[in-house]
Amino acid sequence: MLACVSTSALAQGQPWLDRSKTPEQRAAAAVSAMTLEEKLGLVMGYTDPEKLANEPDDVVSPAIKADVIAHHIKGSAGYIAGIPRLGIPAQWQTDASIGVRVAGMERTALPSSLATAASFDPKITEAGGEMIATEARASGFNVFLAGGGNLAREPRNGRNFEYTGEDPVLTGDMTGGLIRGIQSKHMVSTMKHWAVNDQESQRTTVDVKITKQAMRQSDLLAFELVYDTSSPGSVMCAYNLVNADWACENDYLQNQVLKQDWGFKGYIMSDWGAVHSAAKAAVNGLDQFTGYPCCGHHGAFFSEKSLKAEIAAGALPMSRIDDMAERILWALFAKGVVDDPVKVGPIDFKASADVAQTAAEASLVLLKNDGNLLPLKATSIAMIGGHADKGVLSGGGSSGVTPIGGSAVKGVAPTTWPGPVVYQPSSPVKALTAATTAKISYVSGEDIAEAVALAKRSEVAIVFVTQFMGEGIDNPLELDGNQDALVAAVARANPKTIVVVESGGAILMPWLKGVPAVLEAFYPGVRGGEAIANILTGKVNPSGHLPITFPASNDQLAHAEIPGFHKPDGIPVSITYDEGAAIGYKWYDLKGYTPLFAFGHGLSYTSFEVADLKPAISGKGLTVRFSVKNTGKLKGATAAQVYVGADKTAGWEAPKRLGAFSKVELAPGASQAVEVSVDPRILATYDEATDSWVIKAGSYRVMLGLSSDNLSQATSITLPESRWSAAHGK
After folding, report:
1. Which of 325, 468, 705, 706 could form a disulfide with 711 if both were Cys (CB 3.0 to 4.6 A apart)?
2. Are 518 and 546 in contact (CB under 8 A)?
3. Calpha distance 168→162 (Å, rounded)
């Protein structure tokens, strides 16, 4: 079949359809056959046909309007016309990180990205990526706006639930897994939001001040590791400014780092409404303006009229137009979009839900379990709050997925953007009722006295608390409403109180000392209720580990306030990241703070022992061998974590860094030998003057344990000085 396609393509004078050629060769050949208008058509994307119809004809031509109206998938993120005469398909874009988000389209929601990161298992995110891509293709999409690589620098960031934690190594592996899974289904996946997009307050106007060294060792390192492990076809630039330049026209980020140093061959698309110029944005690396007209746009800068004017004025060379088109086509060829066109078809929602449930069960984190209160043994259980009789909470904004049958709870504020608030119809009450013979009673928790009365007459009380987070807003760490008071009152009434947290990130827990057990469920997805019930009953042994640090108080945060927090959008603000690369647990180590729960923390119903730590130099990095043993009586899994440390002369941002991790599942009494690699960049500092990575000669610590604050094994290794270019392949 391949030979037939190749011969036919060659016979028709269309070498870009010859699958035996490289994506680079195919893209170059296609561009050489394109008219200027066809090239310009690739670099401008559209959304919302109703708004587009009202645009002046000299800005958006009637022909383009007609094409978008005819082919844009209603309610979807965006559309870019294809070139039928050349066999180039249209690009149909869909949000977002946990599933297909299209207004009016019911699809399967994975657990939040932060939740699946807690699995510490890239196979989980890769399987999730495959599942949501399968649904996306069956829905008519070939570009997935999924692959969040931003670090949880700011714990109150409203989009932390879309990302995979606070550490570059964890993010590299977990987001990389998601992108690999998506692209395995012949779609383009999008690494976003490039870069240092670490708050939602004033996200379209905030100017982030940070040194290049700090960026390279934190936010950009996370993206670099994602890129290395997944080769995304596209990258989405962010709304914010970085060191006084808009991210989407930032030469340093787009040209110098991404395209030159890393050798990125794909294309950079804008976030919706994030473009502020035509020639400057294009020359400084932006390849595709997407989502016009949307989101307070500043002009149709990449329209045919606009770019032709820039070309005529000499501000935009034709060579750059060709490069923009080639990059887009490279992604379409390299990721299989051209050779395997999407086709709308049926979806196996049960199979999709099975994937989501497996992910949730691997991701829930048992934070506390005093007296082995869990798994449940009670004969009567009070279940209180969190709409647990109806479903489980989801995050809001462009990652919100409409479940089959719609939200289980309606009318919860906010009902407008980033709402409406969606509850996946997977009731923990119903699931626990089906999983146990205990008598189960539920009250909403709105009446604390009623909840206390139920708790008093029950053997065990389970309180569900929720924290809604969404795109465009940041959140305080305190739970809203009367939830803290509810937990405290129930815990006083019943000493066997369990708290289940459905949150987008870290929360404060002023009631923690009075509660023997806490389960962090994050946003657990389409079968979250079943996953929670299976963990609570012990049908599934918890194995999640925190991908973020939970602060003990607001006083421990690197920034007391978020500029522009809860103020009207559009206020110019700036923030200086003086903490540099000391994000999350690194900040806590640097300052000597004790968090509420440490990065990497997670309990099990069994016990594990790590031993036999043996690091060795491998190239510029390390190979680390060790063993893990299940010393308990139940089958279970844990994430063994290797950290590396250096003294102050090494110039690190903090005393230690996560070097590698491995998820290991073992039967009782079984042990396993494990080998992991520590990337040399994790041992190095970035030297801005020479654009290079440097490992200083000296003694380095290698530590092994089950969380960042529980490192039971440690040894030292002497490393020679190493220096190499930050440019890949040099």
Report:
1. 705
2. no
3. 15
Question: 183: Cβ–Cβ under 8 A, 6 or more apart, which residues?
Answer: 129, 133, 189, 230, 231, 232, 233, 335, 336
Q: What is the helix (H) or strand (E) element at residue 126, kind and residue range? A: helix 122-138
| Contact (CB, 8 A) for 118 and 95 | no
Taking each helix axis from N to C terminus, what angle separates 483-493 and 448-456, rounded to the nearest 10 degrees?
A: 30
Tell whether pTM > 0.85: yes
Listing DSSP states for 56-118 in one string gives -TTTS-HHHHHHHHHHSPTTSSEEE--BGGGTBPPEEEEB-TTS-BBTTBB-PPPPPHHHHHT
- The 3-state DSSP class for residue 610 equals strand
Q: Domain extents for the chain?
A: 2-334, 360-556, 606-725
Per-residue pLDDT at 8: 56
**pLDDT tens figures, 328-350:** 999 999 999 999 999 999 999 99
pLDDT above 50 (res 128):
yes
Element of type H or E holding 366: strand 365-369
Name the band, by pLDDT with cuts 50, 70 and 90, for residue 730. Answer: low
Question: How many residues comprise the chain?
Answer: 730
- 570-626 pLDDT, tens digit per residue, is 999 999 999 999 999 999 999 999 999 999 999 999 999 999 999 999 999 999 999
Q: Dump pLDDT digits (tens) for 57-89.
A: 989 999 999 999 999 999 999 999 999 999 999
What counts of helices (H) and strands (E) characterise the chain?
A: 20, 30
Three-state SS string over 68-81 comes to: HHHHCCCCCCEEEC
Q: Which homologous superfamily does the CATH classification assign to the domain defined by 360-556? A: Glycoside hydrolase family 3 C-terminal domain (3.40.50.1700)
Asked whether 285 and 327 are in contact (CB, 8 A), the reply is no
Are 360-556 and 606-725 equal in CATH topology?
A: no
Residue 631 and residue 608 in contact, taking contact as beta carbons nearer than 8 Å = yes
Instruction: For residues 679 and 687, give the distance between their C-alpha atoms in angstroms, rounded to a whole number.
Output: 17
Query: Does residue 573 contact residue 564 with C-beta atoms inside 8 Å?
Result: yes
Homologous superfamily of the 606-725 domain (CATH) = Immunoglobulins (2.60.40.10)
The C-alpha atoms of residue 501 and residue 199 are separated, in whole angstroms, by 23
| CA–CA separation, 89 and 142 (whole Å) | 9
Burial 643-666 (b: 16+ CB within 10 A, else e): bbbbeeebebbbbbbbbbbbbbbb
**Distance separating alpha carbons of residues 105 and 112, to the nearest angstrom:** 19
Q: 2-334 — its CATH code? A: 3.20.20.300
Token digits of residue 96: 């977002």
Place of tokens 């608390």: 465
Max CA pair span of the chain: 81
Average pLDDT over residues 12-38: 96
